Amino acid sequence: MKKNILVLIMLLGARVYAGQVALPVERLALPQVQGNHLICIWDETASNWHASFASYDHGGSISFQVPEWDKWYWVGLWDEEAGQYVFGKWVGHFVTN
Questions:
Q1: Residue 47 φ/ψ region, left for φ over 0, alpha for ψ in the -120 to 50 degree band, beta for the rest
Q2: How confident is the model at residue 93, as a pLDDT?
Q3: How far out from the chain centre does Cα 55 lie?
């Protein structure tokens, strides 16, 4: 009986952490653009940029690992010549029961 209870507790514990093993990887399609552009990721919770801006390689998409669960991130494409954003998309991944 004790063995069965121990197995049940272990299974319930594994179920709680099963959805949090790894952070998701987000892949966004980006518009076709000409010239120099930067990829910017804004962390809404921290009210700060997630990382330094990266040059866009004109590959048509960006893949990045979402830094944390249950937060919103804004991904923007900055046109260096025009001095404005030409693309923006909010991304959020949330753990649900």
A1: left
A2: 85
A3: 18
- Cβ proximity of 32 and 97 under 8 Å: no
Residue 60: predicted pLDDT: 92
Query: Is the pLDDT confidence value at 8 over 60?
Result: no
CA 32, chain centre distance (Å) = 22
Instruction: Show the tokens assigned to 52.
Output: 């330094």
The string of DSSP codes covering 38-67 is EEEEEETTTTEESS--EE---SSEEEEE-S
Q: Which residue has the higher pLDDT, 67 or 74?
A: 74
**Which residue is associated with the tokens 């866009």?**
56
Residue 21 is which amino acid?
A: V
CA distance 8 to 19: 18
